[in-house]
Amino acid sequence: MIELKNIKKTYKIAKRESGLSNAVKALFKREYTKINALDDISFNIKEGEMVGYIGPNGAGKSSTIKVISGILTPDSGQCIINGLTPWKDRKEHVENIGVVFGQRSQLWWDVPINDSFELLKDIYSIDNKTYKKNLDELVSLLNIEEVIKTPARMLSLGQRMRCEIAASLIHDPKILLLDEPTIGLDAVSKIAVREFIKKINKEKKTTVILTTHDMQDIEALTERILLIGNGKILLDGSLNELKKKKSPIKKVVLDFKDGQISEIKCIEGLSLVSNINGHAEISVNTDILAVSDMIKLISSKLNLTDISVAGTSAEELVVSLYKEFQI
Amino acid sequence: MKKYLSFFNIRFVNSLQYRAAAVTGIITQFAWGIMTILLFSAFYKTDASSFPMTFNQLASYIWMQQAFLALFMTWYFDTDVLESISTGNIAYELVRPIDIYNMWFTKNYANRLAKAVLRCLPIIIVAIFLPYPYNLAPPPSLEALLLTILTIFLGTSILIALSMLVCISTFYTVNNMGVRMVFLFFAEFLSGAIIPLPFFPNNIQTFINLTPFAAIQNIPFRIYVGHITGVAMYKGLALQFIWLFISILIGRLWLKKSLKKVIVQGG
């Protein structure tokens, strides 16, 4: 369905040191640095798959999305989506995709949302019946009945984002590209957006590629994740697989009234990280000492008021991945 | 085709709602028209025979100019287009199954036309009833009137095609203020927006007539006042077609080349 092979793209960026003399110098001679935004990217995505595309800022996520959506022409490499090369057959290709750029808006600022949708209907030449059916469905699923008669400028970010998503799906695309769709949204809107994405992926078999910095998005939505850093694909696998790969060390935070913290130091598999006035942090190797045993042991030695065991959140996983790959 | 019509529609309707802007625009253009006519009347009092047009022809020219200012104003650019390039919102235009050039052209046309529709009628009606020779006189023939209408549309198209070139240059400069200023200077002066072209010295006129700017408002207004007649009208029409073809061709090729290199800014 989506096939990328050895995609490369370098950006040339003008650079100069600060200061007047350097500014004058730059008038005559510019110095450029080359940045490998995409450095030999290859991956395949099957129909109906939902893929989370993660990586730190500037890793090349948006550039990849732009290549897939036909906006950016790569320097070299192959990209075939439904048998079309996006940047060559742009007009035909984009009929089949829906795109949401979380940081931009596709809705007309001062006309009611409805009018923006009507315009999209004409742009994609959607017939009346299909349009009505899709619109009704999207409007009720995304819960935007009340806002579609309002101009975009008067909507909250959460309402607008839901309208943006509706706008990108009005033509029934086979592929949905979401570039940070939950950026800046509150918890309720985030959940609504996630639920909706899940639903259309399941019911309409829409292929979804999602870039995000929000690991809850990834946890809630995607089976497969692609990790990109410095323009290279570093990892391609499922979230669970990755979690298993994670080291067995867990962090435990304790609050206690009295007792000697030094006693627990000698327990095998435990080590003390810090201890300040009855607030201690220890790390446990769960291969040696199971969490339940650890709690039993500690509570027998200390008068605990609070204990918390940090689980393997996706967030931490990603941080540790970033560290591991030094990106 | 239908998609471009809808673009036209949404733009047109959107621009129509600015009534206060239209009213103030009409007042400004009246004041400007009267001032210009008074200025020229002082010159005409000295020696009317040394001018290429009769005073009434000149007054009609100026009233036409004021009535259709929105179509021929050279300093007006579609800020949407400029912004979409410099902020990167063009990303959303590129993910639509549409031709970017056609869409921008249509949007631009709709904007200008909506502005002109609101403004031209009051100016024309009042100008017709002004006392002779300060009034807007009727055209010399029905043929001239029809050709005026046709050449107004063509002239506007040429101006839009030229300003598209300025827009496309935004791909290379990010802030295109400089390019716009240079364009503005030439377009305003050479199109006859400040002083009608027949008032220029003959050898300069010969040169100006070779530029596309002479094919914008110069031709329709001079046909209307009867300063261009007979075969010359059709020569003017042909000249417009040629410039329109050339400027659209250059614009399309340049845009195609720019889009290949486009780097959408930000994010």
N/C terminus separation of chain A: 29 Å
- CATH topology name of the largest domain in chain A, in short, is Rossmann fold
What is the 3D form of chain B?
Answer: globular
CATH hierarchy: architecture of the largest domain in chain A? 3-Layer(aba) Sandwich
Radius of gyration of chain A: 25 Å
The main sheet of chain A comes to: 6 strands, mixed
Within CATH, the superfamily of the largest domain in chain A carries the name P-loop containing nucleotide triphosphate hydrolases
Count the domains of chain B. Answer: 1
Proportion of strand residues of chain B: under 5%
Helix content range of the residues of chain B, please?
A: over 70%
Counted by DSSP, the helix tally of chain B is 12
Distance between the termini of chain B: 33 Å
The biggest sheet of chain B, with number of strands, parallel, antiparallel or mixed sense and barrel status, is:
none
Percent in helix of chain A: 25-40%
Order of helices and strands of chain A: EHEEHEHEHHHEHEHEEHEHEEHEH
Structural class of chain B: mainly alpha
Strand order of the largest sheet of chain A: 5-6-7-3-8-9
Sequence stretches where pLDDT stays below 50 over 5 or more residues of chain A: none
What is the level 1 CATH name of the largest domain in chain A? Alpha Beta
Low-confidence stretches of chain B: none
What's the count of strands of chain A?
A: 13
Describe this structure in words.
The complex is a heterodimer of chains A (327) and B (267). By secondary structure, chain A is α/β, with parallel strands linked by helices. Chain A has 2 domains: 2-243, Rossmann fold, CATH 3.40.50; 247-311, Alpha-Beta Plaits, CATH 3.30.70. Chain A contains 12 helices and 13 strands. Chain A has a 6-stranded mixed sheet with strand order 5-6-7-3-8-9, with helices on both faces. Chain A has a 4-stranded antiparallel sheet with strand order 11-12-10-13, covered by helices on one side. Chain A has a 3-stranded antiparallel sheet with strand order 2-1-4. In chain A, helix 5 (128-142) runs antiparallel to helix 6 (157-169). The radius of gyration of chain A is 25 Å and the shape is globular. Chain A starts with a strand and ends with a helix. The two termini of chain B are 33 Å apart. Chains A and B meet through helix 3, strand 5 and helix 4 of A and helix 1 and helix 6 of B.
